[in-house]
Amino acid sequence: xxxxxxxxxxxxxxxxxxxxxxxxxxxxxxxxxxxxxxxxxxxxxxxxxxxxxxxxxxxxxxxxxxxxxxxxxxxxxxxxxxxxxxxxx
Length: 89
What we know:
By secondary structure, the chain is an all-alpha fold. The chain has helices spanning 5-16, 21-28, 32-45, 65-75. Helices cover 51% and strands 0% of the residues.
């Protein structure tokens, strides 16, 4: 689910008691349990609860291109400045 501005407003209204949890779940097209979880998280963390947990973190499978280039240059010096297939014939 994308927690856009409208969805945030619905959760905020549910926390403030302007609408009930069931009505919030219908408006957001999510389960009642999802609304309950988001309401609890909103009370604890505020607007921050709508951000993805991995925001700002590098992927675990991120490749360090500088290390790869250094390795290639160290172990395959004939490739420098040319195409990878140059000198293979």
